Amino acid sequence: MFLLQRSFIFTLLLIVSCYAKTATLYDFENVKIATIPNGWHISATHPKKPLAIWKVIKAKDAPSGQKILALTHPNTSWFSSGTFNLCYTKKIDFKDGEISVKFKANSGNTDQGGGIMWRVQNNNNYYVARFNPLEDNFCFYIVKNSHRYELASAEIKLSKGWHKMSIVQHGSNLKGYLDGKKLINYNDMQLNKSGGVGLWTKSDAATSFDDFTVTRKP
């Protein structure tokens, strides 16, 4: 009887471990100032040279710790408003699960804010969720072969300062949250491959990010 109980417990633990979520947190506290995390890349969709400057900086108002990752100089203006600024990693292979980040829109005349990119195949193919305080909206897009298509959107006005964005992907279902409130629930099957994860802004939007958390489902 005791051996049967031990066998049952072992089997249960094995099943739980197989379905356990794998979480990765980037709080940028261990990243050297003026650099980006190891294994991350700065790129762009419709790039204009020079590329935007992304780097870890100290911030007195950081949501946690003393460091954040920020796009400090977009190096672009209204005539290159189609440029999407990217900072991402393919060290994390994400298909299903949850990604969250704390973000603060700092400046931008043509565009502001930004958000999360995931299932990143390369700089021309990925999903993206972004909030734009100039438009007071939260949108999901797919970028396919460098062309951006809107999937879903919600109107929302946020105060200045730090906010939290989350996306949840399960199969074809995508959900989007701002400060814990679900605003988007949409189904899309166009990009069904796993891929990298990262951060995104458009045009001249300069934005700060912290506590980038990726929780993958196996």
Average per-residue pLDDT, rounded, comes to: 90
Which sequence of SSEs, written as H and E, runs from N to C?
A: HEEEEEEEEEEEEEEE
Fraction in helix: under 10%
Computed CA radius of gyration, to the nearest angstrom: 19 Å
CATH class: Mainly Beta
Strand-pairing-aware structural class: mainly beta
**Largest sheet: number of strands, sense, barrel closure:** 8 strands, antiparallel
Shape assignment: globular
CATH homologous superfamily assignment: Exo-inulinase, domain 1
Unreliable stretches, pLDDT < 50, 5 or more residues? 1-19
Beta-strand content: over 45%
CATH-defined fold name? Jelly Rolls
SS elements, strand count? 15
Assembly status: single chain
> How many domains?
1
Identify the CATH architecture.
Answer: Sandwich
From the N-terminal CA to the C-terminal CA, the straight-line distance is 33 Å
Secondary structure tally, helices: 1
Q: Care to describe what's here?
A:
This protein is mostly beta strands and 218 residues long. It has a single domain (21-216), classed as Jelly Rolls (Sandwich). Helices cover 8% and strands 55% of the residues. The protein has 1 helix and 15 strands, in the order H-E-E-E-E-E-E-E-E-E-E-E-E-E-E-E. It has one helix at 2-18; strands spanning 22-26, 40-45, 53-58, 67-73, 84-94, 97-107, 114-122, 125-132, 137-144, 147-155, 163-170, 173-178, 181-187, 195-202, 206-216. Strands 1, 3, 4, 6, 11, 12, 13 and 15 form an 8-stranded antiparallel β-sheet that branches. The longest helix is centred in the first third of the chain and has 17 residues, at 2-18. The radius of gyration is 19 Å and the shape is globular. 37% of the residues are buried. The model is unreliable at 1-19 (pLDDT under 50).
